[in-house]
Write the structure tokens for this entry.
Amino acid sequence: MQVVLIHGLARTSLSLIGLARYLQQSGHTTELFGYFACAESFDAIAQRLGQRFQALGAHGPYAVVAHSLGGILTRFALGSGAVPPPVHVVMLGTPNQPPRLAPLAWRLMPFQWLTGQCGLNLTCTQFYRALPPLPTPYTLVAGTQGFTGPFSPFGDDINDGIVALCEIPITPHDPVIQVAAWHTFMMNHPQVQDIVGAALAAYD
């Protein structure tokens, strides 16, 4: 099956090469979808992603594996209902609720320059309220290696260093698979790769 892998805000497609190779060894065909938030608006990226989903859906079933912001882009791209949905979406560390670190990061000019509309959207509660639900089955994975305690911005909340566990679910009843991994590198964690492989195996 064709699998599209979408990287997160501070990464590039290169970050997903290891996971792509893992899926190829399982018999899947993989494609890396790339973007540069500093040079392209969130809306433009999501539109381009929707066009890619449209083309893939016209040729058969496909799946999506998205890291962090990649999951938000996926929800937005599929939201119109005009795009053939994937058979399954796996989200790795995607903040489906407003991430508490985003407003803090947005105060820094370098973050604003590097992330543009993508970074701004992460700070906006109204943007999150307007996000459509996923029209397809999905698997949510969260890292748990982030620091907690009085000196952590997360307090005692479980987190991956960037996103808190409570910020992962799309709905209050969503199960979330927890892995002892950091946000930035979770796609390379063997357990995460096994989870992705198992989620897609049902569609082979």
User: Anything to note?
Assistant: The helical segments are 17-25, 42-57, 69-78, 101-106, 109-122, 125-130, 190-201. The chain has a mean pLDDT of 96.
